[in-house]
Design a protein that fits this description.
Layout lengths: L1 E6 L3 H15 L5 H21 L7 E9 L4 E8 L16 H6 L5 H8 L2 E7 L2 E9 L2
Antiparallel strand pairs: 1-2, 2-3, 3-5, 4-5
Helix pairs in contact: 1-2, 2-4
C-alpha cells in the first residue's frame, strides 16, 4: 500500500485528492468511479476534521492499494482521534419530508451508498475507516 500523511485540517483534503487521483490515473479509472471516490474522500476527511478532536499537529494517514482481477481500489483513513465508529449509527431517514428538514449529516450514508464496501476498526489507538470501490 502506498500512503500519504496530511494535516487533520481542511488543508489536507486537496493533498489527499491529488494523491489518490495520481494513483488511479495509472489504471484508467472510470470517470464515474473517480467522482464517487473523490466525494467519499471529501466526506471522510470532513468528518475526521470535525469530530476526531485532533490537534493542528496531528495528521491523517491515507493509504491506497489497487488490486487486479477484478480491478478495485482500497482506501484506508487512519487517525489518532477519539474512537468513533461512523458505521454504528442507523442509516438516516431519506424520505422527502425528512430531507426537507435535515441539515447535513448524510456524508457517511452517501459513502456507504457509493462504495462497494465500507468498514471500521479501532486498533492500536487508531481509527481506521476502509472503503472499497470496484473499478471494473
Amino acid at each position: 500500500m502506498r500512503s500519504v500523511v496530511v494535516p487533520a485540517t481542511g488543508a489536507g483534503l486537496e493533498s489527499v485528492t491529488e494523491f489518490i487521483d495520481g494513483e488511479l490515473a495509472r489504471y484508467d479509472c472510470p470517470a464515474k468511479a473517480l467522482y464517487q471516490i473523490e466525494v467519499a474522500i471529501e466526506e471522510i476527511m470532513v468528518n475526521i476534521e470535525s469530530y476526531a478532536q485532533l490537534s493542528d499537529d496531528d495528521g491523517v494517514e491515507v493509504r491506497v492499494e489497487v488490486l487486479d482481477d477484478p480491478l478495485r481500489v482500497i482506501l484506508q483513513f487512519l487517525d489518532r482521534g477519539v474512537p468513533f465508529d461512523p458505521l454504528a449509527s442507523a442509516d438516516p431517514d431519506i424520505s422527502p419530508e425528512a430531507l426537507a428538514e435535515r441539515e447535513g449529516g448524510l456524508g457517511i450514508f452517501m459513502v456507504k451508498q457509493m462504495m462497494d464496501g465500507v468498514s471500521y476498526a479501532y486498533e492500536d489507538g487508531k481509527n481506521t475507516l476502509t472503503i472499497l470501490k470496484n473499478l471494473g
